[in-house]
Amino acid sequence: MLLLKSFILGFSVSAPVGPIGLLCIQRVLSRGVTAGFLTGLGAATANIIYSSIAAFGFTVASAFMLEQQFYLKIIGMIFLVYLGIKTFHKKPPQDSARVKGESSFQLFASTLLLMITNPVTIVNFAAMFAGLGFSGESSSLQMAVSLILGVFMGAVTWWLLLSIGVNLFKKSITPHLPIVNKTAGILLILLAFLSLA
Description:
It is globular and about 50 Å long. Helix 2 packs antiparallel against helix 3 and helix 2 crosses helix 8. It contains ten helices and no strands. It has one domain (2-196). The longest helix is centred in the C-terminal third of the chain and has 28 residues, at 141-168. By secondary structure, it is an all-alpha fold. It has helices at 2-14, 19-31, 33-56, 59-67, 69-88, 104-116, 120-131, 141-168, 170-173, 177-196.
């Protein structure tokens, strides 16, 4: 039952379309399902890191990251602006067939880096876990592992469904890809400044 609850939590935390969702959609349209899924997998990996810190109470790590959150947000903002500019100038697939794209690892790592610069996620997970009845002091290791595993599985399921779903409409969207890229690029830059504010 706890695994199912944490699965739903991981799914619902990932579902709102923010910067990562935009990147995932744009990458599915330009590179395919695998590129979109790897983007989401980077986000899900960041979630598993932060949910582990929240569940196992790594006080020193969480305190340090929360103390440094301003600097981490600046790094995240700069990286998001960079991705926004890169997306804005990205050429449609037919124009960029000869242009070397990001490797699978780069697709994964760029999202992981973007997500890891938001340490407030630790506090969010700690609060959500408490809402599910988890207490770091009194709860078992098995309970903590179930929570973390459920969150990860829920997040991965969302990113897989989003990637497949966007791919289903790829043919009708691809002719408009230059507009999609420019819109996504502008939104990523705006979200970068909004996240800092």
